[in-house]
Amino acid sequence: MTASTDRPKVSEREARQVAEAAREQGWRKPSFAKELFLGRFRLDLIHPHPVPADEDVRRGEAFLAELRAFCETEVDPARIEREARIPDETIEGLKRLGALGMKIDPQYGGLGLTQVHYNKALALVGSVSPAIGALLSAHQSIGVPQPVKTFGTQEQKERYLPRCARTDISAFLLTEPDVGSDPARLATSAVPDGDDYVLDGVKLWTTNGVVADLLVVMARVPASEGHKGGITAFVVEAGSEGITVENRNAFMGLRGIENGVTRFHQVRVPADQRIGPEGAGLKIALTTLNTGRLSLPAMCVGAGKWCLKIAREWSAVREQWGRPVALHEAVGAKISYIAATTFALEAVLDLSSQMADENRNDIRIEAALAKLYGSEAAWRMADELVQIRGGRGFETAESLAARGERAVPAEQLLRDLRINRIFEGSTEIMHLLIAREAVDAHLSVAGDLIDPDTSLTDKAKAGAKAGGFYARWLPKLVAGPGQLPNSYGEFGDLATHLRYVERAARKLARSTFYAMSRWQGRMETKQGFLGRIVDIGAELFAMSAACVRAEHLRATGPHGREAHQLADAFCRQARIRVDELFARLWTNTDDNDRKVVRAVLDGAYTWLEEGVIDPSGEGPWIADATPGPSKRENVHRRIP
């Protein structure tokens, strides 16, 4: 059977319906972040800080020691940057260590590490080479192991997990040349043919795809008799006939990443390699990302720690006007930001990871906030480090070494971190995704009221339901513990910040309710407003995590006093940002910006573009992805 070459034509409404159907609809477990957006500061869900089991810590720390020794003696990050490739022997060494199977259960040959220690491992290896961090993360956070572990059959687990734990590299293939965050337009097809499916299509930005042995591929199954159809997940052998890796992509950063373009032409995939039922592909992808997204903030934490180390060492020896630059307020403020933000980001990561390990809470919002907040904060920290280093921050490590100075790759870090604001959901998409979850309670009770397609009878029923909910909910937003001077007293000097979080959470909920009342069905178009709502929630979550972690360290570790200082500094900085975001909810340029954008697209300002020369090359904006046999050399590279 031959797949259709027509790309699916979908309306905006149909695209939203596909995305909505892929969401996990219910909330069977509590969520601290969900409650926060509803104006309920459920400190009991995160305090006392959850802790891992002693055996998990012992096993995790033992592996971290091995990984550190390997990274210090067998990884040459300068070579990876210079050659734009992770050497085969380095990947083989990672396999011998068991690094491919960090999250895979020991019964399948893996190490069985917790999410906490898996993230610590990614932070460690990512600080040496972000490209290696990307290789390991793409393999087991979103590659074959996680979806097979969660949704695969027992036979699939026994077939694939031992391979992924020790020998085989996996990749995740969703994006297409003309399909990014809008999967409703997915064009790669999987047509049933007897006991097989026949795959046709092109996948773009296939991280690990150039060297992968196994692929998770998302493809559209056409509905037919006996087949529900829909976007479906498959495990595919990368060496199958009809698969061609047509290009190894190159980027401004992560020069060692094995990311490419993969074409499928009449690729036969047995039905027993389908993960889950037909039509469940997007739900599988989103569920996988619920914890998979924590890998990115893990590497951002590692970047923050390195930025702090270099800023401290450099600023102590570099003198200007008679004293170290760190003692000049303009530089000192940057160092304070890096130190405080690194502490808070690690607090967010450890808290979210431990909650994922305990599986008592629904962390879909927490993980998304960690990814959003971590990627934005790490980029700013790296930018501040470059500024602190001055001209040396802009100079490459190779050039610094050539003229006799320490080879500090600050500019490389800036390039490597930039993709994290796009990877696994851009900042803009994360804003919308989190906002949708944040208003889920409102849509559950009042969604039919603002849906133009809902009948008057259903609107009346929804009105009665919403009236009961808001009659109980709204009065609770008027006053709370944040207004009592003795609340959260066990946190000492940090109590004032937790009282602020409680008050701000209620204000955030009131603002969201007012906006929904004002804009109703048009709320989803107010992306500027929704982005600020989410950013406020992210800051409040980070403040909460920082305070809880500081108090945990005070009670259990040797650095309690210093942790309280860092948490206090972070909260003071965050409160200024939150106050500014609240002000910008209602005082902004959103309406005027929309007018300017329309004028730009209409060509009203083309005169402003005169006086420059466009150095771009020729070619289409989006490459042709018409199904068919490949006309290019296969650049797939199997690691020996």
Automatic annotation (TrEMBL):
Residues 171-267 form the Acyl-CoA oxidase/dehydrogenase middle domain. Its cofactor is FAD. One of its GO terms (molecular function) is flavin adenine dinucleotide binding. Residues 1-24, 618-640 are annotated as: Disordered. It catalyses: a 2,3-saturated acyl-CoA + A = a 2,3-dehydroacyl-CoA + AH2. Residues 279-437 form the Acyl-CoA dehydrogenase/oxidase C-terminal domain. Keywords: FAD, Flavoprotein, Oxidoreductase. The keyword Acetylation does not apply. Residues 61-166 form the Acyl-CoA dehydrogenase/oxidase N-terminal domain. InterPro entries: Acyl-CoA_Oxase/DH_mid-dom, Acyl-CoA_Oxase/DH_mid-dom_sf, AcylCo_DH-like_C, AcylCo_DH/oxidase_C, AcylCoA_DH/ox_N, AcylCoA_DH/ox_N_sf, AcylCoA_DH/oxidase_NM_dom_sf. It comes from the Bacteria. The keyword Flavoprotein applies. Belongs to the acyl-CoA dehydrogenase family. This is Acyl-CoA dehydrogenase family protein.
